[in-house]
Please model this.
Amino acid sequence: MAEPVYRRVVIKISGEYLAGSRGAGIDQATVDRIASDLIAAQKLGGEIAVVVGGGNMVRGVEVSSRGVSRTTGDTMGMLATVMNCLALESAIERHGAPARTLSAFVMPEICELFTRGAAHNYLAQGRIVLLGGGTGNPFFTTDTTAVLRAAEIDAHAVLKATNVDGVYSADPKKDPAAKRFERLTHSQAIEGGYKVMDATAFALARETSLPIIVFSISEPGSIGAILRGTGRGTIVAG
Ligand code: UDP
Model:
């Protein structure tokens, strides 16, 4: 079998996606489908780490508008990402592959602390590694976390899973004239203000020379296709 184009990757999956059509919380069928896709992609020979968001439960900005302080709201959001990791870890293991959650926070009864060494070891052992707790700091997002962790663990690319097959000039679901980009530089992605990822994430990827591939996770098998280099997505790279 041909070697994957990107051997070690960090895949960013939003919490919102895990909610499926429910809109909030965790949709088990969606989590199971993603778990199978991750396992299939890993069988191609890839080393897969996943950063999961928390927007299906808590976003710091939203709860802070209701009276909770922003830092407490962000902490709640980061804890939500750990719950999502545990849901995905459990689904991956139920589907027959080893997985391990590593958290930015010390919570020894629940999962191990993220360290570069632990992530390297588990990836080398063939586990799918779930990275929870965001960066561990308020005022950041899990998009930025994905780029940060990718740089820390020497990943070859960040795969940003979305509902659409790349970066568009406008929301393609609302604007039929929206143009899809095949390739962008990090600077073009920042200057264009495209909503697909926050500017901090793009800036860190530029600084660390990490390519970001924006693709749709809605079609089963799309993660594997991106790893093989045959998938459809926008490549954001220097
Ligand atoms: N968050 C944070 N620091 C981080 C990552 C996340 O404070 O490093 C908080 C923040 O409140 C954010 C929430 O966790 O709104 C959930 O993450 P995110 O919004 O990125 O999740 P997604 O939209 O991808 O589901």
